[in-house]
Amino acid sequence: MRILLDSVWHSYDGVAYALRNVNIDLSGPGVYVVTGPNGAGKTTLLKIISLLLKPTAGRILVEGVDYWSASSAERARLKSTTIFVHDKPLLVRGSVEYNVSLGLKLKGLNSTDIINYYIKRYGLSDVKNKNVYKLSAGQLKAVSIVRALVLQPKLLALDEPFTFLDNTRAKLLIEDLADLADRGSLVIVASHYMYRDLAEKCRGVIELFMGELISLKRK
Amino acid sequence: MVYLDVTEPIINIVIRSLYVSGVASLVAFITAIVLCYYYSGRSKRVINILTSIFEVLVGVPTTIIGLIVYMLLYPNGPLGFMRLLYTPYAIIIGQFLVALPLAVVSLIRHFYSVRESIRELILSLGLQSSRIEIILVLKELKPILASTYLLAFSRCIGELGVAMIAGGAIEGYTSVLTTTIAIQTSMGNFEEALLLGLILISVTLFTAILTRLLSKLLGEHLT
What are the chain B neighbours of A148 within 8 Å (beta carbons)? Predict the structure, then answer.
């Protein structure tokens, strides 16, 4: 999957700009890491890349198609392969299993094996039938990540995925992201922490500051 | 069978009260859901304006609403041809107007915030805004919906103005718990009034307990 940001600007209020003239060409497979201090525009960049947010100015080309000018059907096709994981987990009322399977259910799919595999892998088996509102912050984070992983997307963007995760789960996640990339996906991770494993496995590091692209170091 | 200083058994008055207020609050509740869902897609400014309007409407005395319904249904009024004045339907219409603002105020902000989250969730899972959105929103709001309905019902069953003015408190036809209490008190039948008062309090108390239980049950209910 290839995604190209052409002179992208974004403002939430029309006054301050969260992104300023960002030009990036990312092509999968591979893991890219977006770094930068608070307010650098990491979340905005990820939301724009994962087609959640329409930029105030500029174009997003997905597989060569100008996404926001494309037909509704074309947009739906491109969108269906793109998943975004929020910094603060967005979960719905229901059990862990229900939340993990939600993405698949909404897409009319079902894969009990893969759901069970990831639930077990991330140590959620014991709380599988528990209401998500009774979980710890780390477990909530794991549920939202697992919900994305079971979908095996072509483009996966994760906003601060390591926050609240213990080292064991963080290492598992890095392994899974690298594995997903090995299978052809483009993975983009915004993170304050650069784990050694992640640094070794990533294909490039995007550095943002005050909404501007400072550098894109490719390996 | 317990009779008042009238020919109608108390149970009939209780059943009529439950029926009239149950229907009025149910219609108000459904209307509030439709309104809130429709407007929850608008900007926060619209939500704030609507909330302010409905908060003002919550404060309108039920006697004023009764008067408005009376004027609408009066034989020479705009809806006089429907011949609904002094019928249980007149009370239902009035109580609907009493309960609607309360239900909207109770729901609208929840609808706005939950719908925003659900929409964001659906988009983040690689889907365009979907028809499933309303189902997920309603599911997420289950405890709030339950408490809102019971709140609307409590407001309806405990009001007097509409039932008296638009219903006319006709014995055996439009008399409900609150109107009968008022009439019995005015006749000096304090014991009967007190008995009906206790029944009304029991109904509202039962409703309040049911609200808590239902909210807790739905709040913890899985999937």
Answer: 125
Taking an 8 Å cut-off on Cβ atoms, the answer to whether B126 and A82 are in contact is: yes
Nearest to A46, CA basis, from A158, A147, A203: A158
How confident is the model over B118-159, as pLDDT tens digits? 999 999 999 877 678 898 999 999 889 988 999 999 999 999
Q: String of b and e for B98-122 (b: at least 16 CB within 10 Å)? A: bbbbbbbbbbbbbbbebbebbbebb
Beta-carbon neighbour count of residue A166 at 10 Å?
12
Which residues are within 8 A (CB) of A17 and not within 5 positions of it... i.e. 6 or more apart? A9, A10, A11, A56, A211
ipTM, 2 dp: 0.91
What CATH number should be reported for the domain whose range is B10-220? 1.10.3720.10
Burial of A132 (0-12, 13-18, 19+ CB in 10 A): buried
- Specify the pTM: 0.85
Strand-pair category, A155-159 with A82-85: parallel
Residue B126 has its nearest CB partner, among A83, A92, A129, at A83
Contact indicator for B29, B103 with CB cutoff of 8 Å: yes
Q: Are A131 and B139 a contacting pair at CB < 8 A?
A: no
Residue in this structure with the two tokens 């055996």, named with its chain if needed: B172
Ranges of each domain in chain B: 10-220
Residue of B nearest to A158 (CA): B124
